[in-house]
């Protein structure tokens, strides 16, 4: 007859064998998951769909900390044009105007405004 300790060990080993995690390829290749995620083309004969047009504007301006940045972009589905601005640690405003498309890639024009030699003062926040 098995002792309580022997039975406990046997049950533990059984649980380890049965409950052993199965490691393998996490991508489910046996269903439509890859098609859904557009990882695999549906059909090589299908035409490539153009990107959807979009536009957005985002910005933050905090006078107390001196944090000042913005980003705006617009796309017609083939060409994306945009601009972003950020205040650098030395106080200059960096402006990047860009255009990107499949034929020419990413092209940027970078300029600076408010050139100063004094770094901005750090902000003191109340707790």
TrEMBL record:
What this protein is called in its record is Cuticle protein
The secretion signal range is 1-19
Q: Does the keyword Cytoplasm apply?
A: no
Tell me any Pfam family this protein matches.
Answer: Chitin_bind_4
Against InterPro entries, the record matches this protein to: CHIT_BIND_RR_consensus, Insect_cuticle, Insect_Cuticle_Struc_Prot
Q: Cellular component terms, GO, for this chain's entry?
A: extracellular matrix; extracellular space
Q: Which UniProt keywords apply?
A: Cuticle, Signal
Q: Which GO terms describe its molecular function?
A: structural constituent of cuticle
User: Where do the record's region annotations for Disordered lie?
Assistant: 106-127
Q: Where are the bilayer-spanning segments?
A: none
């Amino acid at each position: 007859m098995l002792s309580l300790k022997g039975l406990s060990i046997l049950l533990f080993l059984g649980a380890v064998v049965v409950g052993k995690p199965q490691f393998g390829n996490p991508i489910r290749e046996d269903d439509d998951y890859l098609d859904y995620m557009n990882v695999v083309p549906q059909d090589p004969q299908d035409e490539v769909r153009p990107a959807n047009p979009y536009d957005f504007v985002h910005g933050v301006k905090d006078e107390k900390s001196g944090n000042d940045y913005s980003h705006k972009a617009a796309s017609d589905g083939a060409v994306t044009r945009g601009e972003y601005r950020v205040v650098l640690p030395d106080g200059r405003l960096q402006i990047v105007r860009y255009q990107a498309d499949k034929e020419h890639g990413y092209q940027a024009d970078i300029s600076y405004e408010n050139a100063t030699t004094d770094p901005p003062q750090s902000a003191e926040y109340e707790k």
